[in-house]
Structure formats: C-alpha cells, structure tokens
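[[Local backbone shapes]]
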Amino acid sequence: MTSNTDRCIPIVGRTASGETVWYTGRAGQGWISPDPKEAFLGFSLEGARSRAKQFNQMEFVHGIWFTACLGDMAEEVYTAQAAPDEDVPF
C-alpha cells in the first residue's frame, strides 16, 4: 500500500449546493472542475493543506470550501487519471 507521503495529493472542494469540484492548477475559469481526471496532482500533503487553507480564506468570494483529499476520494482521482482516454484511438 502506498502511503500519503509517497503520492501527490489532490485538493477537493464542496460548493454551497453540495457539488464536488477539484482544483485543476489552471488559472482563470478553468481553475476548478467536477471531473476528477482534471485534478492537479502537484502537492505534498502539507502543500495541499496549505493551498486549501489559502483558498478557504477567499471562500466568501467563490463559495467553495476546500481540503486536501485523502482516502477513497483521492483513489478516485488516481484511478481516473490512470485510465486511458476513451476518445483517443490506439
């Protein structure tokens, strides 16, 4: 089993309406996505916690509460990103 210190950690958010969104690492309108395949995997656990805390300081602007993502939801990201694109011919 891989420990959380061995993997990059995604950041997950929850909107006021209950929608799950992922931080993508992009700027502008594409900075979040409901698709786990688009989640940014570039943070250590502490880095993800720190970035989520920064985002949460601006919750009053974007209305999303963020956290570093571990456990089953993180596995959803790893699995989605490991799967080949369905629309790419081989």
